[in-house]
Design goal:
Layout: H1 2-33, H2 42-52, H3 60-72, E1 88-101, E2 113-115, E3 118-120, E4 131-147, E5 150-163, E6 168-182, E7 187-199, E8 204-219, E9 225-236, E10 241-252, E11 258-266, E12 275-287, E13 290-301, E14 304-306, E15 309-311, E16 313-323, E17 329-339, E18 346-354, E19 358-359
Antiparallel strand pairs: 1-4, 1-18, 1-19, 2-3, 4-5, 5-6, 6-7, 7-8, 8-9, 9-10, 10-11, 11-12, 12-13, 13-16, 14-15, 16-17, 17-18
């Protein structure tokens, strides 16, 4: 009797098997999509994808995509597909920029500096100027793979934004080179050097950093993946040199919520108002066709001195921005600096529009 229905059982079993595979494929597709937040690091994204496809059905297109990502990160075999990644790749990018600056010319606050019974008035020509700027940014990125899981990243960028109202602008130049190295068991060591310069009508500031970071990738509760970093940084600016220690934890959850927490501690550097400790945080989540991000920071500075008088400062900021699916990002925020000297107190809004870079 059962032999009569055996063909039916065969096709039913085959249909159920296909449905189960399709079900797990949908789950895997949703889970892996939550790994692809543009704000997450390349390492955490790759680790998240690797963890979530274990035991899951994935499409041939995903395998090709993941294979490319792994090979680009220095893993010669990638996901097992034939073909090799180029040992050196060069990418150029350019994009327009629009943003609001609370100090376009690098000027002084429009108020008197009062220290005890002394009052100082600044040159009216050196008063800071605020307003919108329009411009463009260009960049060059070079990646050179030199061993399994090891590569050099070189980034060079420049941007210029102009104020039509004041007919002046801001020029930014930056460059960094990093040696990124996977040791084993998801432990990584990085060595980086970077330099940046901001040129305004009145000021010309340069900032350099030499850093060493130790990174560990791991998973905790099901669907939660983390990148923990502890690092040392040597900060070099015009008036002082400072050693800093930092701790950062980046987490992506099964729902796609991306969180980032960073603590930084700096040594005292004489009478300079330099970083003492800071907390930076951010939360990012896919919303609608784009991604919504909320971020903030709190920074406490070492007490400094100006004309023999103690200067104490603490700053806070909060920002929120939305990245549209078409590559346009819009952000607003506010930054507040509190000081025991009124001249250095300020509250400034921020606004910007970033456009997707044209890469070639």
């Amino acid at each position: 009797m059962l032999e009569k229905y055996s063909p039916i059982f065969y096709y039913v079993r085959k249909a159920l098997k296909s449905w189960v595979l399709f079900y797990f494929y949908l789950i895997a597709s949703s889970a892996t999509a939550n790994c692809l937040d543009q704000k997450s690091s390349e390492r955490l994204t790759n680790f998240c994808l690797l963890e979530r496809i274990k035991g899951s059905a994935v499409s041939p297109e995903f395998v090709q995509f993941f294979d490319y990502r792994l090979k680009r990160s220095g893993y010669a075999n990638g996901a097992g597909l034939p073909g090799k990644a180029k040992p050196t790749t060069v990418t150029y990018q350019a994009a327009p920029i629009v943003y609001y600056s609370s100090n376009i010319n690098g000027g002084n606050p429009n108020k008197k500096l009062i220290l005890g019974g002394l009052e100082f008035s600044g040159d009216p020509k050196l008063i800071l100027k605020k307003g919108m700027l329009l411009g463009a940014t260009t960049g060059l990125t070079i990646r050179s793979i030199y061993a399994e899981g090891k590569f050099l990243d070189l980034n060079l960028s420049t941007s210029y934004a102009h104020s039509p109202k004041y007919n002046i602008g801001i020029l930014n130049l930056s460059g960094d080179i990093c040696s990124k190295n996977h040791i084993k068991h998801f432990w990584h060591i990085d060595f980086c050097v970077n330099s940046s310069r901001t040129i305004k009508k009145i000021i010309n500031d340069q900032n350099r950093n030499i850093s060493f970071n130790l990174t560990k990738l791991f998973s905790s509760v099901p669907g939660s993946h983390h990148e923990a970093i502890v690092g040392f940084n040597r900060k070099i600016v015009k008036n002082y040199r400072q050693n800093q220690i930092g701790f950062r934890l980046e987490t992506v959850t099964f729902s796609g919520l991306l969180s980032n927490i960073k603590l930084t501690f700096g040594e005292k550097t004489g009478n300079n108002v330099a970083l003492k400790n800071s907390l930076d945080w951010s939360l990012s989540k896919a919303w609608g066709e784009g991604t919504f991000t909320l971020s903030g920071s709190v920074t406490k500075s070492w007490d400094g001195k100006i004309f023999g008088r103690l200067r104490e400062e603490k700053s806070r900021s909060i920002n929120m921005y939305y990245g549209f699916g078409n590559g346009i990002n819009v952000g607003v925020g506010v930054a507040d600096t509190d000081s025991n000297i009124d001249y250095f107190r300020s509250t400034n809004p921020s606004f910007y529009i970033n456009f997707s870079s044209l890469k070639f």
